[in-house]
Structures are given as structure tokens and as C-alpha cells.
Design a protein that fits this description.
The protein is an alpha+beta fold. The chain has a single domain, classed as Factor Xa Inhibitor, CATH 4.10.410. It is about 30% helix and about 10% strand. The chain is built from 3 helices and 3 strands. The protein is elongated and about 50 Å long. The two termini are about 20 Å apart. The relative contact order is 0.27.
């Protein structure tokens, strides 16, 4: 059985925590930020956890990080 290839785009976008959860960056912060409030922009700086329903798909994309 051949090895599974890692999806390089996904590998660069997600970080795996010590407990096996995945972190992702927030969306909605690339442009049109003048209209968004400072509190909202501060919240968008932080990383978010990937939802549990998406973890199966992520494990297929990044099989050797888990």
C-alpha cells in the first residue's frame, strides 16, 4: 500500500495542538477592515479551533500530523 500524500496547502494552514485538536486562522480580516470595529478586529487576530465535524476531513488531508 503506498503512502498517503499530505495536502501541502492544508499543512501550512492548520496547526495541531498537543491534545490533537487543530487550530485555524480567523477569516474576514483580509480587507474592508475600516468598517469593522476595533474589538471585532482584535477578536479576529486569535486562532480558532477547527470544529469536530471537520476533523475527519482534516485527518485525511494531513494524515501524519495526528
Amino acid at each position: 500500500m503506498p503512502k498517503v500524500k499530505t495536502h501541502r496547502g492544508a499543512a501550512k494552514r492548520f496547526k495541531i495542538t498537543g491534545t490533537g485538536k487543530a487550530l485555524r486562522h480567523s477569516n474576514m480580516k483580509n480587507h474592508l477592515n475600516e468598517a469593522k470595529g476595533p474589538k471585532r478586529l482584535r477578536k479576529l487576530r486569535k486562532s480558532k479551533l477547527v470544529h469536530s465535524t471537520d476533523m475527519g476531513r482534516l485527518k485525511q488531508l494531513i494524515p501524519y500530523k495526528f
